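Re: your question from the hallway

Yes, I did run it. Sequences:
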Amino acid sequence: MEEKVIEIKNISKVYKIENFKVNALNGINLNVTKGEYVAIMGPSGSGKSTLMNIIGCLDTPTKGTYTLDSQDISKLNDNRLAEIRNKKVGFVFQTFNLLSRYSAIDNIELPLIYSKGRLPKPRREMIMDVIISVGLKGREKHRPSQMSGGERQRVAIARALINSPSIILADEPTGNLDSRTGEEIMAIFEDLNLRGSTIFLVTHELDIARHTDRILYLRDGIITGEEKIKKPISAKDTLKNMPTLEDRISKLEENKNYEKDI
Amino acid sequence: MKRIFENLKVAFKSLNSNKLRAFLTMLGIIIGVGSVVAVISIGAGAEALITQNLQSMGTNVITISPGRAEPRGEGGPMRHLEDANTETIDEGELHLEDAIALQAKATLLNEVVPVLYGRNSTISYMSWSGQVSVTGTTQDFLTVQGYKMAEGNFITESDVSNLSNVAVIGNTVAEDYFGKINPVGEIIKINGKNFVISGLLQTIGTAGFGSDPDNSIYIPITTAQNKLYGTDTVDSIIAKLKNENQLDESTAEVKSILRIQHRIMPGENNDFSVSSPTQFLETASSVLQILSITLGGIAAISLLVGGIGIMNIMFVSVTERTREIGIRKSLGAKNRDILMQFLTESIILSLLGGLLGIGFAYLISWLVKTFSGLSPLITATPIILALSFSTAIGLIFGIFPAMRAARLNPIESLRYE
Ligand SMILES: Nc1ncnc2c1ncn2[C@@H]1O[C@H](COP(=O)(O)OP(=O)(O)O)[C@@H](O)[C@H]1O
Ligand SMILES: [Mg+2]
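Structure:
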């Protein structure tokens, strides 16, 4: 039997605003096994973020149970939730959420600062490992304002990876990026997944969702459908066939010259 | 440990990126701490100066001055009414005879010395001339004041009875007019009259409250009264006690002798007053204390205002950094970590203000020293007090903003723009 990382049983989430209630989630059942790459899709207001927050231990469900790495999360207090976020969850956000006054290294180091106990390796080594794995070597001293969107998202991914989490949660990670850079980020996820990371992706773009093994469709707080992707898109292959901007420009110039010749 | 380091790093990063704001926030603390430390130091300096001066005068000396010292509790107009009804002269006078009577009759006094204090007079020697304070007195002045001769002799008893034109000069006068020449035996003019210098005093050093004793000339009181200033009064009479523990008894004896001497009827007020250094010290230090408390109170208010300024800026900082708080929480920061982060920042802010305040106090002390000659005593106590006080202010006024930061909901904070 495959090892379950996430096991969600009949989860509901009700928000109370003054006198009336909003049912953001209405009985969700969901399992994610180790090493799986799952996407969740759904229209705005369908409950994607609410589900992400619960899976990411930023919030607890009103009803139902949530087990992460065979540990029941549903009834934990704030401090225990913080520890689990630190150790077991790696967040990647659409807006990167980096600290602007911190260099890449300092941003990546943040989860280590809030970790209890001894680090498995010297801190510098751990940071350099993840910097290399997201392809940011040489940029580690730069601040977010000195980096492109794609580079910022790489820093965010490196930060998510630093404590070797059980699950990586990515909420629209390519939403703020151009298609080529987005594809580069998807290539990093692909690579991480091949090396064994469990990844849970929220997106509203089908092209992005098709990179994963499985797509869940969410509507009005209920999972309405599920689709296994037999042959996921490989971001690496897509990138090979995707011309860079420079290629485009040089091609256009060639055409111009050609026109002139005529 | 790494969290303490991180907190310090965050605090300094945040203060560094808002230098002007941080400085303006600290200003209240800087002024508050600076004035507390300066006030305490100036007070301590003044007290040390007074004690030093009085010790050089000797604690076994009493001073008799003409006129009534203290109206007993009544206000100004009342006093005038009373004066009109009684026949006492408000402005009493002291004469040489009073000193002679005290010397003859008092059993509890040693030397009794009449003094005609520091009249500014023109002195000249060869082609130089200038203003110097001239004090008329008798042979025992040297013993009572505890001064020492460097050269020659002090005024003698026969100088006083013969109205001799002799002068004893202080060290500064000697330096100014004679340089390296031995002044003893030289002749100087005081207000145009010739005086032979009979002696030179050793440097006295302690700055008096009136004239500088080193920049003075001492002549027989009789000469001063009759030949220079045309008066038969004396400014004060100083007397040395036989036993310094009998201050009250000695004072009482002096009063009774002078009342008879001045023919003051029972029930009438004295037309003179008796004071002692001890008394003066008590008065001076209580005045200093009141001054210190008043200024200290003002400084404390400034600290309070500074603390409120810190609280205000910290609330602003928490709001500005809501998203940062959300990010940190999503990465595993606990409420306690966020609380400590903001508390560290406010404590650093006020502690830094405290340190700058101490620098400010040093500046004030230096200014006071340069322009008044009083040297403030900066001791460890007010510095430690100021630093612990500013730490406490950072803690007290930082706790509410820090608690607000710690309690922020991570999801909402992450969404904050
Ligand atoms: N903090 C909240 N308080 C009240 N209602 C909320 C809150 N968060 C989300 N909701 C409501 O829950 C529903 C699902 O929201 P959300 O999970 O953000 O959807 P999605 O991310 O798919 O757009 C929406 O109707 C939204 O208005
Ligand atoms: Mg959403």
